[in-house]
């Protein structure tokens, strides 16, 4: 089949873009032709002739930013101009989608979160208008919804709130199938809209080498200020408050062995006004951990590269390769890719039972990990962590057990089975 994907951006490191690329890879492996309509291309997962650039679809387009500001952040006194503009932009987008689908003989449309989260009003409405005018099956890959974001999508205008309710998620056509990334979303969308959604977990390619120590990454620890005889524990996430990084710092503080070091790889680019980052810096100083906790966002990015001064940039795979174990004390996640990445890297993981996903969708499958409740470091948890960090045979046993389970539940082969069911109309 010819499958047409509509997505705000492709090739970025956000969860939607990353999972979309995995779907594209597996759909192509299944023999489908994949076409992409997007407002931003940072990579090219399909041949260029199957890519169509439509700038208005970008979350950074002037149209999207203008709509978001007036609908949610800086509303004017009168919504008339906003409503007319959203309607006009949506009709233009619908026309482009219709022409694109006709031109490429699209058999099935795939909306990548654009019909779930109202972060681009006219794109979501444009997809709805296009679907209403075409007799074509639709799959929506829904990562998160407005009601999961607190007051983020509250507007003073009843017309905007009505648009959000009626458009997100897409549900105007009986040929629409919804894929969600966790069972909590499946239950919520059933309760709210009587929609029977398919749970399609986030996955990793368990057949590709990952986190392999090699000549390139062998000096990573020294380059960020540690030694090879240290016990490196990595926090491989962005620096945002819900990641619970302060708990990882507390854990290092409570472990007696000064060789245990914490490396925080992510940047604070998404930390509003850097308030959380500053609290972490203060915590490290107050606990006297300056020599045991380092930030490495300037040296570790998604892919290998080189700084202006010629020094190496290491990849996430290099970071996992250099770790003995990883921390993941999030309080909330839609899924939790960093957990599965750690399993793929064959490293033990210390995790919080983050809501609403970890135990129902991941932890209950039998993974061996040190799990906290409400991020409380108990004496038992501390002893378990200490034993794992100092017992290489135990680490290997845990790693192999978890890798087998990860391959069983979160591999590309699992995704292929799910997509085969979703795209059989």
Essential attributes:
single chain, 425 residues, Rossmann fold, 6-stranded parallel beta sheet, 15 helices, 15 strands, 40% helix, 14% strand
What's this entry about, in short?
40% of the residues lie in helices and 14% in strands.
Shape: globular
Number of helices: 15
For the record, the CATH class of the largest domain is Alpha Beta
Count of strand segments: 15
Structural class: alpha/beta
Task: Describe how the helices and strands are arranged.
Layout: E1 2-7, H1 15-29, E2 33-38, E3 51-53, H2 62-73, H3 80-103, E4 108-112, H4 121-133, E5 138-142, H5 158-167, E6 176-180, H6 183-193, E7 198-199, H7 220-223, E8 231-235, H8 245-254, E9 260-264, H9 275-286, E10 293-295, E11 305-306, E12 312-313, H10 316-321, E13 325-328, H11 337-344, E14 349-352, H12 358-362, E15 370-372, H13 379-390, H14 392-409, H15 412-422
Parallel strand pairs: 1-2, 1-4, 2-3, 4-5, 5-6, 6-7, 8-9, 8-13, 9-10, 13-14, 14-15
Antiparallel strand pairs: 11-12
Give an overview of the whole structure.
- With 425 residues, the protein is α/β, with parallel strands linked by helices.
- The chain folds into 2 domains: 2-203 and 413-422, 3-Layer(aba) Sandwich (Rossmann fold), CATH 3.40.50; 220-409, Glycogen Phosphorylase B (Rossmann fold, 3-Layer(aba) Sandwich).
- It has helices at 15-29, 62-73, 80-103, 121-133, 158-167, 183-193, 220-223, 245-254, 275-286, 316-321, 337-344, 358-362, 379-390, 392-409, 412-422; strands at residues 2-7, 33-38, 51-53, 108-112, 138-142, 176-180, 198-199, 231-235, 260-264, 293-295, 305-306, 312-313, 325-328, 349-352, 370-372.
- It is globular, with a radius of gyration of 23 Å.
- It starts with a strand and ends with a helix.
